[in-house]
Each structure stands twice: as structure tokens, then as C-alpha cells.
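Summary: Need help interpreting a holo structure output

Steps to reproduce:
1. Submit the protein chain below together with the SMILES for pyridoxal-5'-phosphate.
2. Request a joint structure prediction with the ligand placed.
3. Inspect the C-alpha cell block that comes back.

Expected: a single structure record containing both the chain and the bound molecule.
Actual: see attached output.

Input attached:
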Amino acid sequence: MTTEEKRDTDQEPFGFDTLAVRAGQLRTAEGEHSEPIFTTSSFVFASAAEAAARFAGESPGNIYSRFTNPTVRMFEERLAALEGAEACVATASGMAAILSSCLALLRGGDHIVASRSLFGSTVSLFGNYLSRFGVETTFVALTDLSAWEAAIGPRTRMLFVETPSNPLTEVADIAALAALAHDRGCLLVVDNCFCTPALQRPLELGADLVVHSSTKYLDGQGRCVGGAVAGRRELTDEVFGFLRTAGPTMSPFNAWVFLKGLETLRLRMDAHSAAALSLAGWLEAQPRVARVHYPGLASHPQHGLAARQQRAFGGIISFEVEGGREAAWRLIDATRVLSITANLGDVKSTITHPATTTHARVSPEARAAAGIGEGLIRIAVGLEDLDDIKADLARGL
Ligand SMILES: *Cc1c(COP(=O)(O)O)cnc(C)c1O
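--- attached output ---
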């Protein structure tokens, strides 16, 4: 069998939806319509000379799946096309994407400025692990541009932000942060997990790198753990260099799942967003609900910014119930449809109590300072009938 690969579609000038189902597809001589999964750890060469040329980087092609794999490459090229990135590197998890970006681009003595309201493991990675190797992080209030500016010092190399934030859905001004970063000789890295490129394209707003947990919306059905880094090739090449050496690469099977996930990404993100907008408005009208955090609501402090920066407002809502932890747990335990799990970005709606789960490791003082109260509940709105989700919550309210 010859393994000549045919490219189905080159990127430009196709629209987002075409790229989502076509970009990066390889077709073997078998003529398969759907993308194949290459479950092979290594690749063979036609001759000793070809092996030598491949190892020397003089001839393109695969060597070993810790380095490259055709199914993984299809996912990378498709996600790069959707993010408007020159290149993309897939990783074993979202945390592997963040770790690899930091270890590839930073060295001992460098400094990170990051938003305080980050994914819990990212806070721990920066605060407890990178610090051991002399990379210090200053955490600042996400929406306070002057705090970001004041925290930048002579050793600062990276600004790191997640927007909208988890769980309070605060929105950072990506273009303003990119301008600040570049003015001070730093890179801006954006965790685009909550919006995905279907709703927000940070690279177009000036960010240098986008990191993803593809575990969330890129998969969209909660099946696999994975991640990715996208941006200028000069930067992703550095990340790839680290990754192929250190090893947290994506498996071909997971890449295939994510590749198929990308095909329905925009449809799902639009549906998640529409359902969340409706649910957020409904929650705001409930007497036992003290406050609703959702960028699509006019009451959200960065509603205007979110409307400019995002194509829609996403699927994550958080809200505070009166009565603290007891009332919050009672509401969560009364649900029958929603899954009680910390995961998000799934067709199945999920509900979680951040103060005792995702943010339990954060000290009570830091939690209070971050605005994550005992009565706060986070919902990732799935694709069930909205009336069933409302009825589920109404039972607990
Ligand atoms: C889940 C998540 C991560 C980490 O991703 P994993 O795939 O679990 O390693 C990073 N950032 C955000 C915003 C997340 O939600």
C-alpha cells in the first residue's frame, strides 16, 4: 500500500465552518472519507539514507509518535486554522500545554504576571512548582489594567490570562493586555478554554499564544483529556522542541476525538451560549438568587467589552444563592438532570460548588478576596432541553 497523503483542503480563504470540518485532513491511498487514526508508535523508512535524512530534518515525515503523528497533525492543523494561528502543537492535557509553554519559553529568574482568577491547577503550577525553578509569579486582579502594569518588572517575560474567568466570568481586555505586554517586551498567553475560537480569537487581538484544554469544549462530549498551544511558528516551534523531548504529547486516538469535536464546535458553542443567556436571565429573576455572573447580562461589569471581544457569551454561568454553603449544597443535591461534577464544556450540563471543589485548595481569605463565596454555584450549560434544566434548578430553589 502506498501511503501518499492527499490534502483535502488548504486553509485560506475558507470560512470558519468549512475549516472546522475540512482543514488539515490527510487522505491516504485507501480513499477513506473520514479521518483515519494512525495508532502506531513509530514509522518505517524506505532506506537507511531516508532514515538519516529524516533524523537530520532534511526530509519531512514521521519518525516516532512522541514527535509527530498524522492524526495528531490533522488536529493541530485544524485547530491552528480555527484560531487563525500559524501553527499549533497538541499536548497530553491542558496543563501539559501550559507547562510546556512555560518551560519552553521561560528560564530561571524570569517572572510571570497572571490573573488571580485562574484555573486551580494553573495557580498551583505557577505558585508551587515553577517557583522551585526560580520562575516567580505575581497574581493581579483580572480586570485592573493598572495592576497588571504595576506588576511588570525588568524580569517579566510573560503575561498569562484566562478570559472569561472561572467561576466568576470576569472578562479581560485582550487587546489592551497585548499592547501592554508588547510595550514592555513580554509575551501575552491567553487560555481560550471557555470561549474556544468559535467565540473568541485572541491571536487576532494581539495575543502571542493561545493555550487550550481540549478536554472541555473542543471535545465537547467529555471523552478525552488533551490540550494545545497555538500561535506564531517561532514560538510553537520552541514548545514543540520541549514537548518532543519531555514527552507530554497527545495520543492519536484522543487527537481523532478532538478532530471530530472541532467539526461541531461552532454549532455547539452557539447552542451553549443561547441556552446560557436564557438561563442567566431566568436565574436573575429568581428571588433566592442574590447575584448572577454571566457576561451576556447587561448587569455584568464587562458586558460591553465581552460583546465587542466575543462572538457570543459562552456556556458558563455562576450565581450566588442566599443562605451560604448549606443552601448551595441543598440546591446542588436537589438536581436530577445536571451532573454534579467539576468538569465543563460538555453536552451534559454540570453543576459544581467552587468553594469546596475546584477552589477548595485556595485559602478562605484568598477565596473571599477573589469573590468566590460559600453560596456560589457554577453551571456549565449543556445541550439538554432548557425547560428541563430550569425545572431541575427550580426544585432546589
Ligand atoms: C480544565 C482547564 C485547564 C486544564 O486542562 P486539563 O485538560 O484538565 O489539563 C486549564 N485551563 C482551564 C480554563 C480549564 O478549564
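--- end attachment ---

Reviewer comment: The chain has two domains: 70-263, 265-396. The chain has a mean pLDDT of 94.
Status: needs-info
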